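Journal club prep, notes for RB
We'll compare a predicted complex against what the paper describes. Inputs for the beta-D-galactopyranose case:
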Amino acid sequence: MKKLVNLTILAVLLLTLVPVAVSAQEMVVCQEEVVVAKDDWLSNYADKYFGNAQSWPAVMALHNQAALAEPDKYPDSIVNADILEVGWTICIPAEDAAEAFLASYDPDKPETLYAAGEAGQLVVGSWWTAGGEAEGLAGMFSIYEGQHPDVEIVNATVAGGAGTNFFAVNKARLLGGDPADTFQLHAGLEVETYSPETYLEPLDDLYASEGLEEAFPPDLLTLLTYQDHYWGVPANIHRSNVLWYNKAVFEANGLTPPTTFEEFQQVADALQAAGIQPYVIGTKDGWEAAHVFEDVLAGSLTPEEYRGLWTGEFSWTDPKVTQALENFKMLLSYANEDHPALTWDGAGEYLISGTGGMMIMGDWTDGWFTSKDFTGYGWAPSPGTQGIFVGLSDSFSLPAEAPNKENALNWLKVVGSKEGQEAFNPQKGSICARTDCDPSLFNEYLQSAMVDWSQDAIVPSVQHGAAAILSWATEYKDAMTLFVASGDVAGTQAVLQQACVDAGVCQ
Ligand code: GAL
């Protein structure tokens, strides 16, 4: 991704817009040029020249500025901090320049590590760092790069499944007037947390110019509408309620995937007797139990009752919610003891190695298994949810103060396009939000998800932004995290009811 820059235009632009950056750009003085040798790392250089390995961002950022200003001397810019290729010439910046950079460096703004040519940057905020997710995102980046080769893409991820760490970082940037150019946003009520009327651009014009109202199904369009506007372009549809199992383990023990909680218990007992960890979960990031519980709720209630929990039409104090908590407690009684140390994908390793039997997790697991070259997995709706699809959708938004707005709009066009969605979803483990993708590009699981999406009762995920505003979803999540340790059914049910009251939906 080499940028050839018309320096004159750049200088004029910078002089008009960001005078401070000009001085930084013009003043990159390299104290030394080093040619990358085997086993060289940015942190080694930082340690050697500045006495501190943690100063590596200064080397990356200032080298990249030098590479932009003097491409003949420094033809290779550093796109990934962990990848330096043998033979590259690196500018080791002068010590005072490095110090000046580090004084204002903010790790939450990775774009400062990259230079930007005349076409600027595209800073994309998301939490997609796991296998499958990262590849899917890269697939959309490739298409964007093909169309806009002069734009520097900055993959501004904040690791942590379900956006657990992302939300706070992203919101601080947005409210501070310093947002990414576009960021991941679940379709549904999650948008409320970002005060879209102030901080985001409505995307109605883009929907019209790209024909997006014709491309997405009506129910999804309804989910995407908040205060009469569209605030995100959806890339996909995910399913929350999938029971994944190891096929060989099930076959060896003569088992079929359980369809009810009673059957779950029988299968789990059989697995336990065979020395297999019956049920696996990772609870490290604090959202995974809440994810599974939404699926248990959907499996313990009718679709109308489940929907009613989020609209105030079905009561959290109902005995069926008590039963759902008992069902979840039963599941947890078969869980791996090391769950507090594992993320969702860490727990999935039990299934890959055949030491674990079953896991309930969203269908990004399909993308992750695929990225690990694991094909020995089977799937079924989680217990009690035959004919029910607990759905969610990832979209991308446009902050009102996006620094590279045109680049961001072009990104949203890629996200909403058939080409973009076909590059993204087969790797991500999701199906297209569009209705015109080619099914033959998708594996067997995803083809089955397409069929289910078209005929099941669709109910909204709460853990992934669709059903409730973020403050309510967070109270719900925290209650379920505590439940894993306490097993307190009555106390947890009272807290869940109170969360609904706090959200202003229940009395
Ligand atoms: C969800 C998101 C998915 C996937 C998952 C695990 O919230 O919608 O795309 O990233 O988290 O991180």
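Talking point for the session: The CA atoms of residues 123 and 154 lie 5 Å apart.
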